[in-house]
Amino acid sequence: GCTLSGNTVTAITGGVGGNAGSNGTGGTGGVGAGVYLVSSTGNTLAGNVMTSIDGGAAGTGALKPGTPERGFGVYLDAGSLDNQVALTNTLAGEEIVYVNGADGAVIQGLSLTADVSPTNWGKITVVDSTGVQILENTVASFVGPVGMDAGGIRLVGCTACAVSDNILSGITGGRGQAGKYGNDHRTGGPGGRAVGLWVADSTGGTFS
Predict the structure, then answer these.
(1) Over the stretch 170-188, which tens digit does the pLDDT of each residue have?
(2) How far is CA 17 from CA 20, 54, 58, 169, in A?
(3) Which residues are registered as beta bridge partners of 162?
């Protein structure tokens, strides 16, 4: 895989949604991302400093405006979960906490409260790991991508992980698309779910 390290990434903004004419709905803004991984595995990210990563604004329309998008430090599609993202990567000065295949890791005492979305998966994400402990962290102010789900702490494929004494607040699912869902193109799309502790394909965990 590739190594992406020591880069400074700033002032990244997704495109503005297109404007619509009469009886139309504005377009959805584009994703902004410091690093965007698509169908990519085995890569290592370390020491990358990201600031001012923003999604695109909504387009205007005579019928209704479109939907603004969010910016993300590291965006990983579903085929790109098997990557290494070190805690030395930051977004707006806040650690990007994405742990993959790190058996026995301890994530403890972090304050992750900046109004940023470090990845599109959650503020703390643990993938395919055993015995990870997530303890005494404060997690707040995460927003998911347009129409997609949001997790404060998300476990995917974890075995015997412990999540204890964390404080979570301000987790918001991605806003549904405006007027882009339905045969008549006037019904808004569903918003994403918002979950404090999201656990998927995991066994033997302890939550206390």
Answers:
(1) 999 988 877 654 445 566 7
(2) 9, 13, 5, 30
(3) 133, 206
